[in-house]
Write a structure and sequence with these properties.
Elements: E1 7-13, E2 26-32, E3 40-49, H1 53-57, E4 78-85, E5 95-98, E6 105-109, E7 114-115, H2 131-144, E8 151-155, H3 162-171, E9 175-180, H4 183-191, E10 197-200, H5 206-213, E11 218-223, H6 227-234, E12 237-245, H7 263-268, E13 272-275, H8 285-298, E14 305-309, H9 314-322, E15 329-333
Parallel strand pairs: 8-9, 8-11, 9-10, 11-12, 12-13, 14-15
Antiparallel strand pairs: 1-2, 3-4, 3-6, 3-15, 4-5, 5-7
């Protein structure tokens, strides 16, 4: 049974960012532990997932999900431990994946939780066998539809989503070219993840390197960045190429939306460009997660994590994520 006098630590949205996010846009507050009713469980957060989509939820603009209101806890996926339960299927000590957000304790209905399978580190279910992995799977296979021998380009290739996309595309028999920021990330993408090539977009001459790395053009683009990166990938697209538009992180902190210059390529090459939101069909998640977890367990799906320690450091880690300072999946170890 939890201590009713214990305090909960939360990170709330204090102000809406104007351009780049600042640590002062967040507030660290203490509140009482939430009381649970029948069918609910009390959760203690072990790991918090930080993801680029959170930047859009900080703005008061139309998006695929509601904005975080000022004073509300920031949204986010978590791996949590059941502290107290009034649900027949959960007991103290059980580990679950939840949407607890940026806080140390939370409550949830038992029907909103996914039990963490045994045998793998729990944090894996916030990364390659969690939402980022499902995002990679659905975007690549539903929209990209890669065929053996085709060339697949992946931007933000060393990140939580891009790293999974590239490995799945290689498994499919494709030539895979990553785009990442910095020589260390590019070396990891090629040497550890098994991509055929990686282009460092921070280096002068990267556009020519992209051309050299895609001698047969580009058939599939898994787009996480947008802006200049997408414009230059469009120059390399083949007829009937497919673009899975997953993210536009290059413009998330811009005062004005970034434009797309090479729109003509969409017409001339009869390109199919489709945006998608992985939460549109939650019914598919369990099967995909089983597939991904099996690959992680077998060692065929590799991953890397950057872990910040302490909930109070979540804002700083999130800003670093938006600047590309993380390597692989960005997590916060809360408990």
């Amino acid at each position: 049974m939890s201590d009713p006098g214990a305090a909960n630590l939360q990170v709330t949205l204090k102000s809406r960012p104007q351009g780049w996010v600042r640590e002062s846009d967040f507030a660290l507050v203490e509140t009482p532990l939430p009381a649970i009713a029948g069918g609910e469980v009390l959760l203690r957060t072990l790991y918090l997932s930080l993801d680029p989509y959170m930047r859009g939820r900080m703005d008061e603009v139309k998006s695929y999900a509601a904005s975080v209101n000022l004073g509300e806890v920031m949204v986010g996926g978590t791996v949590s431990e059941v502290v107290d339960s009034r649900h027949p299927q959960f007991k103290s000590g059980d580990l679950v994946v939840s949407a607890a957000g940026w806080q140390r304790y939370s409550k949830a209905g038992g029907d909103k939780l996914m039990r963490v399978p045994a045998g793998l580190p729990p944090s894996v279910f916030l990364g390659p066998a969690g939402m980022p992995g499902v995002t990679a799977w659905t975007g690549l296979f539903d929209i990209g539809q890669p065929q053996p021998g085709e060339t697949v380009v992946v931007s933000a290739a060393s990140g939580a989503v891009g790293s999974v996309v590239g490995q799945l595309a290689k498994e499919k028999g494709c030539r895979v070219v990553g785009i990442a920021g910095g020589p260390e990330k590019c070396a990891y993408v090629v040497d550890t993840l098994g991509f055929d090539a990686c282009v460092d977009y921070k280096r002068d001459g990267w556009v020519q390197e992209l051309k050299s790395a895609t001698p047969d053009g580009v058939d599939v683009d898994f787009e996480n960045v947008g802006g200049e990166v997408l414009d230059n990938v469009l120059k390399r697209t083949n007829a009937h190429a497919r673009i899975a538009l997953c993210g536009l992180i290059a413009g998330y902190n811009a005062a004005e939306p970034m434009g797309l210059h090479n729109v003509r390529a969409l017409l001339v090459n009869r390109i199919r460009l489709q945006g998608f939101i992985v939460s549109d069909d939650l019914s598919r998640w369990p099967e995909i997660i089983r597939e991904l977890a099996g690959r992680v367990a077998a060692g065929s799906l590799k991953y890397r994590e950057t872990v910040a320690i302490g909930l109070e450091n979540a804002p700083r880690a999130f800003i670093g994520l938006l600047k590309g300072e993380n390597f692989g999946k960005q997590l916060v170890k809360v408990a």
